[in-house]
Amino acid sequence: MSLAPPITCDADVAEGAAWLAEREPRFAMALAQTGPLPLRLRPPGFAGLLDIIVGQQVSVASARAIYTRLVAAGLDRPEIVLRAGDDGLRAAGLSRPKARYVLALAERDFDFDALHGLPDDAAIAALVDMPGIGPWTAQIYVMFCLGRRDIFPSGDLALQEAARGLFDLPARPSPKDLSAMAAAWSPWRSVAARLLFAYYRVLKQKEGLS
């Protein structure tokens, strides 16, 4: 089975957003508030996965600051990570568990190029096979580093909260329930995720003004 062409540009995201808005009025309503959706692609490979690991369970601002320090020190390259070791990664701001995961990743010499030829589920499974890489991290990598069109990380709390607000749900949906909802948004679930991420920011701004 051939793979769908990846998302590579703003026009691809706009195509997916138009498809979603045509089929789901609430997505059309959300788009009117968010405006055009960001591309949000990241470079594939070690540096891209490092960026995602850094962003786990910290604020966007903290993640940017830490990643900037890592890049400035050359710690976005496996060979430099191995030379720096745990102390070097910790000095750049990584927590002890994240430093351990990044070191394990650098030691693994993982074949990131091979992921481009794998179906979505197989690419995610190959990433999850590494220490410290859970489903969310793998899904975010496949979505934003490989540009896959139909990935939906239903375990993401921001997506759950955005769906609750947009669809007037009585409570935040579970990952299983949100995944079931998202089935109707295929083959553009990656753009649906972008839209819900953007709508989550709209909700947070409204809460800040209230």
TrEMBL record:
It is an enzyme of class 3 (hydrolase). GO terms for molecular function: alkylated DNA binding; DNA-3-methyladenine glycosylase activity; DNA-7-methylguanine glycosylase activity. Transmembrane segments: none annotated. Its EC number is 3.2.2.21. GO terms for cellular component: cytoplasm; protein-DNA complex. Gene3D superfamilies: 1.10.1670.40, Hypothetical protein, domain 2 (1.10.340.30). Keywords: DNA damage, DNA repair. It catalyses: Hydrolysis of alkylated DNA, releasing 3-methyladenine, 3-methylguanine, 7-methylguanine and 7-methyladenine. Coiled coil: none annotated. Residues 54-201 form the HhH-GPD domain. InterPro entries: Alkylbase_DNA_Glycosylase/TA, DNA_glycosylase, HhH-GPD_domain. SMART domains: ENDO3c. One of its GO terms (biological process) is base-excision repair, AP site formation. SUPFAM superfamilies: DNA-glycosylase. This is DNA-3-methyladenine glycosylase II. It comes from Sulfitobacter faviae. The lineage of its organism: Bacteria, Pseudomonadati, Pseudomonadota, Alphaproteobacteria, Rhodobacterales.
